[in-house]
Amino acid sequence: MKIEQRQPKSAPDAPMATSPENAAPVEEVEGLLDVGYVAAKLKVCKATVYKMVKEGAIEAVHLNRLVRITPKGYKQLLEKTSGKGR
Predict the structure, then answer these.
(1) Which residues, 6 or more positions from 1, have their beta carbon under 8 angstroms from its beta carbon?
(2) Other C-beta atoms within 10 Å of 59: how many?
(3) Mean predicted confidence (pLDDT) in 19-30
(4) How far is CA 20 from CA 45, 52, 57, in A?
(5) Can you name the residues that pair with 34 across neighbouring β-strands?
(6) What is the per-residue pLDDT for 62?
(7) pTM value?
(8) Contact between residue 38 and residue 75 where contact means Cβ atoms under 8 Å apart
(9) What percent of the chain stands above pLDDT 90?
């Protein structure tokens, strides 16, 4: 018996906001970002991002056990760390 693997149906050209390979400029990111995406963009480990969320350095939303970063919080963090937000 042969088992077929099905790919989820989605628009082939639509960028995913949580995928580092399809990274968009911060202004164009819509929707919540997962911790892995933010960690990859900042070149830090996930634990660092979780710590930043816990300390309030980055705005996040908690969905039960999931943590998602808001695009606004991500943008503010980038501006703060690059010196533009001073």
Answers:
(1) none
(2) 15
(3) 50
(4) 14, 19, 21
(5) 68
(6) 93
(7) 0.60
(8) no
(9) 50
The DSSP code for 3 is P
Question: Element (H or E) spanning 2, and its range?
Answer: none
- The Cα 84–Cα 73 span in angstroms is 15
How far apart (Å, rounded) are the C-alpha atoms in residues 33 and 26?
A: 11
CB 70 within 8 A of CB 60: yes
Query: Which H or E run contains 34?
Result: strand 33-34
Beta bridge pairs of residue 66: 63
Give me the torsion for CA of 14, 68, 43, 82, rounded to 10°.
Answer: 100
* Residue 27 neighbours by CB under 8 Å, 6+ apart: 75
If one compares 47 and 2, the residue with the highest pLDDT of the two is: 47
E strand spans, the chain: 33-34, 60-63, 66-69
Across the chain, mean pLDDT equals 76
The pLDDT of residue 71 is above 50: yes
